[in-house]
Amino acid sequence: MTNPRAPVGTGRPGRARDPVAAFRATLEDMRPRDAVDHAVHVFAELTGQASATVGVWPDRHLPGMERALFCLLYRREGRIVSGEALRAALWPDRDDGGSDNGLRVLAHYLKKRMRGVAVIECVIGEGYRLVRAPGTLFPWETDL
């Protein structure tokens, strides 16, 4: 019998693996409440019910991966999201879950784009946290 969590492919780092196994592993590595939030978000995206406007500003542009990181942090605003969970969500097709350096670089660029609107805090040894500037209301929140 095969292990349902075993990667599919060559087993070399950076190679694609079974997306269901990757998703399961991602959820198992999260706290239960975060796992539920993540699963619901993925379901909403798959069914076309996710908000396409989150992370979209009229006056600033977030490239794809920066927007993905922003959305992951925004969904857990004010709470620390582990680097491991972020790498698994951002690079689900990688056996190694992406690199620490790749996440650091992505967070660096996102921090620069968020100046004056929000702070992306790096909590050493734990992960990252989004903290919005006092009195800031994101454009997509005005329609709520």
From TrEMBL:
Pfam families: Trans_reg_C. One of its GO terms (molecular function) is DNA binding. One of its GO terms (biological process) is regulation of DNA-templated transcription. Residues 31-132 form the OmpR/PhoB-type domain. Keywords: DNA-binding. Residues 31-132 bind DNA. It comes from the Bacteria. InterPro entries: OmpR/PhoB-type_DNA-bd, Sig_transdc_resp-reg_C-effctor, WH-like_DNA-bd_sf. The keyword Cell cycle does not apply. This is Transcriptional regulator. It comes from Rhodovulum steppense. The lineage of its organism: Bacteria, Pseudomonadati, Pseudomonadota, Alphaproteobacteria, Rhodobacterales.
